Amino acid sequence: MVEVTLIEASRRAVLQEMRVDSRVWVLGEDVARGGLWGQYQDFLAEFGEQRVVSTPISEATIMGAGLGSALVGMRPVIEMRIFDFVMCAMDELVNQIAKVRYMFGGQAKPAVVVRMPHGMWRNSAAQHSQMLEAWFAHLPGVIVVTPATPADAAGLLVQAIRSDDPVLFFDPKDLFWVTGEIAEPIEPIPFGVARKVTAGDAATVVTWSAAVPVATKAAELLATEGIKVDLLDLRTIWPWDQAAVIASVKKTGRLLVVHEAVEVAGFGAEVVARVVDQVGTTNLKAARRLAAPRVPVPFAPPLEAQLRLSPEKVVNAVKGLLAA
Amino acid sequence: MVEVTLIEASRRAVLQEMRVDSRVWVLGEDVARGGLWGQYQDFLAEFGEQRVVSTPISEATIMGAGLGSALVGMRPVIEMRIFDFVMCAMDELVNQIAKVRYMFGGQAKPAVVVRMPHGMWRNSAAQHSQMLEAWFAHLPGVIVVTPATPADAAGLLVQAIRSDDPVLFFDPKDLFWVTGEIAEPIEPIPFGVARKVTAGDAATVVTWSAAVPVATKAAELLATEGIKVDLLDLRTIWPWDQAAVIASVKKTGRLLVVHEAVEVAGFGAEVVARVVDQVGTTNLKAARRLAAPRVPVPFAPPLEAQLRLSPEKVVNAVKGLLAA
Amino acid sequence: MSDAGDNLRRLTGLYRMMARIRAFEETALAAHKAGEIPGPLHVSIGQEAVAAGICGNLRIDDRLTSNHRGHGHAIAKGADPRRMMLELFGRAGGYCRGKGGSMHIADFSVGMLGANGVVAGGIPIAVGAAQGLKMQQSDAIVTCMFGDGAVNRGPFLEGLNWAVLYKLPVLFVCEDNGVAAFTRADTVTAGPGVIDRAKALGVAAISIDGNNALAVDDAAQVAVTAVRRGEGPHLLHVRTYRITGHTSTDAAAWRPAEEVEEARARDPIARLGAVLAERGVEPSELGRMIDDARAEMAAARGEANAAAWPEPAVAFEDVQDTGAVAWSKSH
Amino acid sequence: MSDAGDNLRRLTGLYRMMARIRAFEETALAAHKAGEIPGPLHVSIGQEAVAAGICGNLRIDDRLTSNHRGHGHAIAKGADPRRMMLELFGRAGGYCRGKGGSMHIADFSVGMLGANGVVAGGIPIAVGAAQGLKMQQSDAIVTCMFGDGAVNRGPFLEGLNWAVLYKLPVLFVCEDNGVAAFTRADTVTAGPGVIDRAKALGVAAISIDGNNALAVDDAAQVAVTAVRRGEGPHLLHVRTYRITGHTSTDAAAWRPAEEVEEARARDPIARLGAVLAERGVEPSELGRMIDDARAEMAAARGEANAAAWPEPAVAFEDVQDTGAVAWSKSH
Ligand SMILES: Cc1ncc(C[n+]2csc(CCOP(=O)(O)OP(=O)(O)O)c2C)c(N)n1
Ligand SMILES: Cc1ncc(C[n+]2csc(CCOP(=O)(O)OP(=O)(O)O)c2C)c(N)n1
Ligand SMILES: [Mg+2]
Ligand SMILES: [Mg+2]
After folding, report:
1. Which of B179, C39, C278, C319 is surrounded by the fewest CB atoms within 10 Å?
2. How confident is the model at residue D20, as a pLDDT?
3. pLDDT for A170-205, tens place per residue?
């Protein structure tokens, strides 16, 4: 075990896989210089410029070329630098990557990983802060990964690179310099298995990505008041660990979904709707969401704070849930 | 009152507004020839080539140029031909149109209408059949319109053209040749007001767009068995008529949301989650969704039929709900 | 003139391929009009020399990306018209098991990486495939077919720039039939045209008469050789004419009748037939090739009409491995 | 040489504008390093002649779209550096009420339609604004600023093609500072360059030395006149150098020190200062302009540091009129 930052954990995951699988290559802006976040530091020296490809600012082609290479058997790691720029490559992602296998009756194997650092981070404002992971849960054909710890980022990234399905990997910008232990070699973590952060009977709290440390802090605060919650980090929102969530809610009778993205039509709605469907209303005392208002992300710190989660907000939401 | 098809109703709505407001103009591929669906037939002769602009196949610029014109006071109707091609213009829609007013502190008025014929229609397969309206309910800054009748298409399109907000107008391809009465002149229909299609106490059925006639047929079939439902056509999913839905569910205690789009993380999840939040679980017997599986749209008729709604499926879902 | 021009067997092969493509398109068009084929259908009648002339110079392990008007490209690349017809009809035995239809035909076994329902959608995919092949030190190349309408979409610029940067083995083919749907492409294409655009991006480019199969064949042979030799991407601008409408339901009545007549007079199949006749091929032999092609496609149509539909469960297969929903069970 | 070149008052104005932009950028950079400014910050030190030389030829009702490195463009277009600084600091009095920050500064009252956080994002907006102005029969024009990194994104092709088709009054300005973030732009830009790309799309284009304010001013005057006269879009390729890093936190240490030194020797402000000195302007007067500019920006910084933050409720305003959530109430 070694203690590293989340971004370094992700670096080691790709490094490990590139060492054993010559089909893996990285493409994106500035990746030969180590990438915007240092997540490809020293890759060029080790793998050369054919496998570590700094590209023009051509997002559509970064995405589409990644796919094209997969169609001849490569396994690209497509680096999007910042999630919001994926909007320049949506045809390639939505109409091509997500659909080729199906449309072609199984002939195509779009084994791509698309890395998309997302979320609010240091007041980057509306065009550099979006969290739209829910969109891709709604999009057939893709896997949606939303890690929150160095170990999960590493293990899920290894799994992603080995996956034959296209994987949309939402790197959590706000947690890049959070540290944690990872094993070496890095073992893959299967998709769709939630991580239980804390255990308790009072309520079920479901979360992922940058909301995880906030909810964890809240669970600790609640515990000091004797309120113990089942806190589940989904880690991947498609597939997601329905069994774990449903089992927990059956036990606690209360569900709170906490996410950093906008509440309206966010993935929290799916969790609530599915739980209501599967658990029924008789044994369900309340199911609620705590998430961002339907507002673009503003720049100024006091405004951004209006949209951000905080342990206090989570604590209050849990207490409100318990009162229901 | 005059009986027309839905596509003709939409044609008359734009025609009416272009006659009274010289700021309104239309841009998109082939629009000077009447548009792919005939929705701009004879516009060129009446308004000339400055206001009826056939464009190159440059979706990003069709979208972005529409916005640019709005920033100098025009009111563009941006024609996207088929929804799926919007994927080629997502930066312009998501990062620019939806955000300029907010990012610039209120200086910009992005009064654009984006028309996006969507949904399954005559086996058009995966790249020409998508229904992703839920995505845009999740996107702050835009209005999402999903009409199902000629009268609603006309009235909502008039309202859209007069709106200072960006309006995403999802033309329902499958209903283009359905006929119905429209008033002349066409009166605007406010956003966020549901239409009650049938009334009843057994359950609340919420739907929109191409699912409306299917659910209506189902309600008729159920009525012949003595089961009367409150059937609500939301008409716009952002804003949506929460008050009407919540009032109905408080009365019936049962909710079914029916939509043509994929169920997972579709807008039905939001409706369920919000209703659970506002109505509580004590008086709610069941809340469910009937929608498409998480699968791209296949081509062959028997396969497409697997994804499509039918009155029978709705009838069965309502009966299942009543048994809960 | 190249070997190709002199090789009668090669020319006869070209003729047969064009006749087969024409017969496929005419058969599909008739079947669509008869209500046998669902969905939209774009045929390439009049453009057969492009597909045949280009793809005749490709190896089976060369890759191809195509567009919405791609039947000819697929047949010329070696796809089986029977399985294509089955796909058009949405049947289980089709290339995509009935899940793709006309606009999404692919046959990876012959390097045909797929038609595309999005204009210019194949361009980024083609350059990426070429990059993959280059990493694998293969000498296979990628041919990327698109229409004159595609040169106004962003990926055209991005893809050509990209191919030059990494010196990729891509042959870009701009199949210029003069129209994009219902609009004359030149009315929405500014500047001197695709050749200048390509050159401004560093791509070697020439224009050829796409209704002259020999000219296409010759130019393709030169370009394919250069691309395969590692000289970087090339572009062929191939001028042709779309005889029928945009889709099977479009009469394209806005075009002057004389224009279409004049184009018919330049029919690529008749033109190559005249060359062959000059070189001593009997008219009856030419006629037989056409009859054979028609019979082949009529048989394919008959088979398709009789073929089984895909089982409903097929709708739920090949979505993804992990996280695919066994819908009927879980929902 | 044009009137501009001969007009000492004009040249002095150019000098003052460049000094103000430089002072703004240096002040902002210092403030960012001191932790006073949140978010990312891209300054244009060394590139001032581009903004000043181009925008000095625009009317207040001409429109401008800019990019992520747009402070200079905004100041030169007439925006108030005080309100810009307030915006950088995220304060209530900023142009965007603190909601945009450095990358989203706009001042519609002087025709500045916004910076943009997306590379090439301003191009489609600019052509649409020009189309709107043309429909309104205005003789105002639109200037569209973008970097050398933007010419590899699709909207570059689409936007230029579009502007030519509809003969729109757009002046495209490619501000070529040699780099795109941490990559030399020429290593990812194939072919002969932006001038050829523009010409291949039918856009009249010339290259100029962007560290020579007089040259920029002259070329802009000619181009603006032509565009305003209805001659269609023009492009200026303006070669300059980014003295500092990509963002305020980037040291750009990968560049050889000599390269930066050599660029400093071509500092556009010093060069114009030398011209002015030659024409008899006292060094003390030049110094005073620089001091004034610094004082102006220091005052802006001081004011910004002391200024009020926006009220929390501002976060919920200007989302949209219909369907905006009064969040605190409903949730
Ligand atoms: C991005 C995109 N925009 C619009 C369309 C609709 N469309 C299909 S084919 C076509 C015309 C294409 O013209 P061209 O590329 O010249 O091909 P051709 O049909 O002439 O073979 C259009 C506009 C599409 N499929 N994709
Ligand atoms: C579409 C998009 N891709 C990537 C980025 C990240 N990015 C911001 S600035 C920049 C470099 C831009 O270079 P250039 O256009 O030359 O402008 P300069 O920074 O040199 O002024 C990049 C890659 C972005 N903002 N938008
Ligand atoms: Mg064409
Ligand atoms: Mg640059």
Report:
1. C278
2. 98
3. 999 999 999 999 999 999 999 999 999 999 999 999
Supply the pTM of this predicted model: 0.98
Res. D216 pLDDT band, cuts 50 70 90: very high
Residues 256-275 of A with CB under 8 A from B: 261-262, 264-270, 272-274
State the burial class of residue B224 (Cβ atoms within 10 Å of its Cβ: 0-12, 13-18, 19+): exposed
Q: Say yes or no: do domains B2-182 and B195-323 share a fold.
A: yes
pLDDT in tens, B38-55: 999 999 999 999 999 999
Best residue of A30, A55, A303 to probe chain D, by most D CBs closer than 10 Å? A303
Using DSSP's 3-state secondary structure scheme, residue B297 falls into: coil
CB-CB neighbors (< 8 A) of D323 in chain B: 143, 165, 191-192, 238-239
> What is the assigned CATH class of domain B2-182?
alpha beta
Residue type, B305: A
Using CA atoms, how far apart are residues A95 and A98, in angstroms rounded to an integer?
6
Q: How many CB atoms lie within 10 A of CB D284?
A: 9
How far apart are the C-alpha atoms of D240 and D49, rounded to whole Å?
A: 9
What pLDDT does residue C6 have? 65
The model's confidence at residue A16, banded by pLDDT at 50, 70 and 90, is very high
Q: Is the CB of D149 under 6 A from ligand 2?
A: yes
CA–CA gap between residue A16 and residue A159 (Å, rounded): 12
Mean pLDDT value across residues C65-89:
98
Contact A56 D150 (CB under 8 A): no
Q: At what angle do helices D283-306 and D8-33 cross, to 10 degrees?
A: 40
**b/e sequence C49-65, b meaning 16+ C-beta within 10 Å:** bbbbbbbbbbeeebbbb
As to burial, measured by CB atoms within 10 angstroms (0-12 exposed, 13-18 middle, 19+ buried), residue B45 is exposed
CATH of domain C3-252+271-311: 3.40.50.970
Which tens digits make up the pLDDT trace of A259-288? Answer: 999 999 999 999 999 999 999 999 999 999
* Domain range list for chain A: 2-182, 195-323
Give me the residue spans of the domains in chain C. Answer: 3-252+271-311
